Amino acid sequence: MRSAALCFVLAALVMSSALDAQQQRRRPPAKAPAPPPAPPKQEPAQITCAEQLGTGIKSRASFCFVLAGRDPAQGVLVAVPPHTGTATLTFHLHNRHTYSEEEMRAGRGYAQYTAVVGVLTMVGDLLGRGAVQSEFRGARDLYDRISGGAGPGGMKAVAPIGDELVTISIPDKVDQVSLLGEILDATTAAGRETATPGRPVALVSNVQIEYRPAPPPRKR
User: Fold this and answer.
1) 144-165: per-residue pLDDT in tens?
2) Where does residue 89 rank: exposed (0-12), middle (13-18), buried (19+ CB within 10 A)?
3) What count of other Cβ atoms lies within 10 Å of the Cβ of residue 153?
4) Percent of the chain as helix, strand, coil, to the nearest 5
5) 114: how many CB neighbours lie within 10 A of its CB?
6) Is residue 3 assigned to a domain?
7) Three-state SS for 56?
């Protein structure tokens, strides 16, 4: 009896081992863990500017006109690198002032500006807006002066005034956006000025993009 029972136990153990081995052979290999997400990057954005004002003497920043219009292709184009999740676009927005020593001496130098720009996808979806408001009473109110002009000290008459930091969220899959002028309400010695298609509404500088790089495509 003991021999028969021992044989039965041994047979059961052999069968159990065979079943375990068979199940292990059928079990799919464990998937390799997904690589950790890439750390976020912040860098100057690649932009296409239809009309450049120039480089600031103090800030060394490059200033670009934002034109009024409705066609995204006519705006300041900002390339957005391939990214995972939401990217963040930041830029400094300025009003545009034409400085005149003659107007200052004549007591007609005061000016007031309000400008609004929109950030759109290339199919026209609005992602957000930025606004800047400023007043001019004297040269100290200017944010910067621009080199490369014919005025005193080689400065241009047109200069940025005011400075607002604008932050816009960029959805996944969007690889380019456009900055277009929407509203201009300016009162200067020359009179009242409003947004006209194709004309400057504001100035933009220091365009930056923060994003988490998309993973490389999987090999097939």
Assistant:
1) 999 988 777 789 999 999 999 9
2) buried
3) 8
4) 20, 45, 35
5) 16
6) no
7) strand
